[in-house]
Amino acid sequence: MNNLQPYEKHLADKLGQVPVPDKNEGWIEMRKLLDRDMPEGGGGWGGNRKWWWMGLTVAIIIAGLWTSQQFNDRQRAGSQAGFAGTDENVTNKPSTPINNETNAVANEVNSTTDNTNTGSNAEKSNNTNEPAVTKNRSDNSNSNERKEPGSNKNSLTKGPATTVSVSKSKNNSQLVDLNVSPTGNGNQYSRLVNNKNSGNVGVRNAGASKANNAAILLAGKEKNSNGVVSDMFNAGNNNDPIANAQGAKVYKSPEENAFLSSYTIPSGLVEQTFENPEDKFIDLPSEKQPLKAEPGKTDKAFTKDMRKKSIPEDNRKMSRRNMRGIGAEKDRDLTFAAGLSMPQSFAIGGQQSPAYGVNAKSGKASDYVPVPFFQYHINNRLFFQTELQFQSPQFTDRLLISQTQHTISPANGMLERSIYVEKLYYFNIPLNIYFSPARNFYFGSGIQFSSLLSGVATYQDNRYTNGTLDNSYSRVQGFKDDSVAAKLAPSEWRYQLEGNYYFKRFTFGARYNQALKQFVNLQPSPTLPLTQGRNQSFLIYLRYNIWEERKKNMYSLAGN
Amino acid sequence: MAGALTDIELVRGCIVNNRMAQEQLYKQFHGPMASICMRYTRNEHDAIEVLHSGFLKVFKNMERFDVAKATLYTWIRTIMVNTAIDFLRQKNRWYVSHGEMEKVETGGVEPEAVDRLSVQEVLKLVQHLPPATQAVFNLYIIDGYTHKEIGNLLGISDGTSKWHLSEARRLMQLYLSKQAKVV
User: Fold this and answer.
1) A17 contacts on B by Cβ (under 8 Å)
2) What is the separation of C-alpha A104 from the centre of its chain, rounded to a whole number of angstroms?
3) Can you say whether the dihedral through the CA atoms of A43, A45, A46, A48 is positive or negative?
4) Is residue B69 classed exposed, middle or buried when 0-12, 13-18 and 19+ CB atoms within 10 A define those classes?
5) Residue B76 distance to chain A (closest CA, Å)
6) pLDDT given for residue A216 in this prediction
7) A463 min Cα distance to partner chain B (Å)
8) CB within 8 A of A11, min separation 6: which ones?
9) A399-402 contacts, C-beta under 8 A, 24 or more apart
10) Which residue in A74, A439, B78, B151 has its CB near the most CB atoms, within 10 A?
11) Residue contact A521–B18, C-beta within 8 A
């Protein structure tokens, strides 16, 4: 204590009685300052920080969308490259000494009885005994032109030349219309070779791959295994359009590939060819019949027919696993999912966790009502989810929401009745968006609409006599749609954050949410301070996807 | 106990930026805080400015209030005094080093001389002291700070604080003596 002179104590006392400005007027000024510097909206998540958090969330969502878009683009590009790479890798193997250099796929091989080359593309073949290959180079533009039989030299004619014509569809794939006119002695060898710069041959890769499949049609006994659709020569063992169209996947036999790679047509082979290929063609069942280019039939219709014929045959060539892709791709394809969730709420902060269930019944079984949910997956990194929490517990502080006092005569007594909120139950509809920064891990954020269903409260009666407490009685009781419930906000919006681990059909995660406004803001009695409370909750959950739907793609059609 | 509960409830309300709680707290502490501001400033206008600036600090930093360390009144009063000092510091360049000044011995004044003055006159007397001297006078005489605390608060030495106190006493006695002679 400082040493003060006697008059200074008097000064201090006097200064303690200094008249001050009116507090009501002061508050008006103060409120203006508060409205300017601290806009209303609550603390915690409220106030200025609320907008900060919301802005951050919006930024995260935008970044997630952008990232997922980038990911999809890469995925799409990778998928196309995968097709191209596969085709290219394998089709290069069986490439014949014939050098494929252009988009022209029409090869004309004429092998006469004396094995002299009559074609014009002999510069690519060093072996003079090799069948001459005439490349009817088609322009690389999408001409959509399909040669009609008989319309030109590629048409089906009884002439000495064997002609393979390939026209290109709009999507740069090539449809093969191989018309081979056997010569009189039937010594015909045709090779159809697509180089990698040309369009796809067949249906499967039509429009799906930019690479080209090599297809070799060998008119002959064993050499025709990789033949392309031919009007005349369909006499190979594996002479189906899809096999040719797939190109890469057809050449399964290393021996065959090796053979094809080094294949040169021996002169003696002439004698081994069938004499009348039309006979074999006629014997084929209808579904094996190659597609013909028909007058007046559009490319689109032609392609459609090819696709229809290709589907069952594709099943035969590829396993379902290969058709559907690897497991990761299966996950990516998830679009809709629905299931049940089992939440477990925890009391946080100053919240209490009474051992009462709904309607103040003992036991907390009512706190574990399964929650149905529904998810919509935009891609494997982003999805939306909504739930229906029919009866979700909400722990709260022990808040005094009402206090009344009654005088008891004639004993000069007083009865004080207080009501404390112990626990609440809400019907919740959350809507969240989830983003995956890493495989199987998701962060979510969203809003939740909460509607008050019921609650549990303690009703405490204190009896005072001459100001001293002489009796106290309390009971725990549920409330719903009554005067107590009317003191609380009937509904509210909450902001929530969530993180989870999503593995196959199971999801394990945690969620935190907080109300944007107070659910109670009242004065229990005129002599008591305000009672205020804002809901917040933390829960963990385990979800299981009962129903899932995945994207339909071209391959899945084959599997069905 | 009831008061503590009131303080806690007020603090909670202010933390969540509740206007009702803020209004209640403002009106509850308005009187003593306004009195402090009047003593530290030179007029009512400055006092209100300091008062509102101080309350704004209180509301913005309410989550830092620790009931275990101080009562709400003490905490708010500390903020208010600091705000007043900052205000004086901004308006008056009185922190030029005074060096180590010696204490000036002054004679005594009868307490009755003070009693004869009204509250307004006493307030005027304090407000007419030089700013630094006024601050030291308030801190030492009214608010009970030590010279060391005053030195730390104002950024001056203990000796300077003592000099300001002596100067304040001298001026006070001078004024009160004049008043006594008039009477």
Assistant:
1) 119
2) 40
3) positive
4) exposed
5) 16
6) 38
7) 19
8) B114, B122, B126, B141, B142, B172
9) A399/A520, A399/A531, A399/A533, A400/A524, A400/A528, A400/A531, A401/A457, A401/A484, A401/A487, A401/A488, A401/A520, A401/A522, A401/A524, A401/A531, A402/A484, A402/A487, A402/A524, A402/A525
10) B151
11) yes
Distance from CA of B88 to the nearest CA of A (A): 19
Dist. CA A353–CA A360, nearest whole Å: 13
Q: What is the pLDDT of residues B75-90, one digit of tens each?
A: 999 999 999 988 888 7
B56 C-beta neighbours (distance < 10 Å), count: 18
- Scanning B92-151 for CB atoms below 8 A from A yields 108-111, 113-115, 117, 119-120, 122-123, 126, 140-142, 144-146
Counted across chains A and B, CB pairs separated by less than 8 A come out at: 140
Residues of B (60-89) whose Cβ lies below 8 Å from A: 60, 63
A466: buried, middle or exposed (CB in 10 Å: 19+, 13-18, 0-12)? exposed
B13 touching A (Cβ < 8 Å): yes
B112/B141: higher pLDDT: B141
Q: With contacts defined as CB-CB under 8 Å, which chain B residues touch A10?
A: 111, 114-115
User: Within 13 Å, how many C-alpha atoms sit on residue A487's CB side?
Assistant: 24
pLDDT above 80: residue B31:
yes
Most distant pair of Cα atoms in chain B: their distance: 57
d(CA A218, CA B126): 116
User: ipTM for the complex?
Assistant: 0.83
Q: Indicate the residue of A14, A33, A47 with minimum beta-carbon distance to B52.
A: A33
pLDDT at A544: 94
Residues of chain A with pLDDT under 70: 1-2, 41-51, 78-298, 309-332, 409-411, 552-560
The candidate with the shortest Cα–Cα distance to A170, out of A141, A139, A202, is A141
* Per-residue DSSP letter, A318: S
Three-class secondary structure assignment of B57-80:
HHHHCHHHCCCCCCCHHHHHHHHH
A18:B123 CB<8 A = yes
Check CB contact of A29 with chain B, cutoff 8 Å.
Answer: yes
SS (H, E, C) A210-250: CCCCCCCCCCCCHHHHHCCCECCCCCCCCCCHHHHHHHHHC
pLDDT number for residue A342: 92
> Which residue of B lies nearest to A46 if distances are taken between CA atoms?
B16
- DSSP-based three-state secondary structure for A201: strand
Nearest alpha carbon to residue A495 among A514, A517, A509, A510 = A514
Per cent of chain B over pLDDT 70 is: 84
pLDDT of amino acid A501: 93
Residue of A20, A26, A46 with shortest CB distance to B16? A46
Q: Kindly report the backbone phi and psi dihedral angles of residue A27, in degrees, each rounded to the nearest multiple of 5, phi listed first.
A: -65, -35
Contact assignment for B63 to A14 by CB distance below 8 Å: no
Closest-CA residue in chain B for A41?
A: B17
Residue A302: per-residue pLDDT: 73
What's residue B125's pLDDT?
85
Shortest CA distance from B22: residue in chain A: A31
pTM listed for this prediction: 0.37
Cβ contacts of A26 on chain B, cutoff 8 Å = 26, 30, 34, 48, 51-52
A241 token code pair: 């359009």
Structure tokens at B95: 């922190």
CA distance A90 to A242: 16
Q: CB distance from A20 to chain B under 8 Å? A: yes
A26 contacts B26? CB cut-off 8 A: yes
CA atoms of A535 and A349, how far apart (whole Å): 11
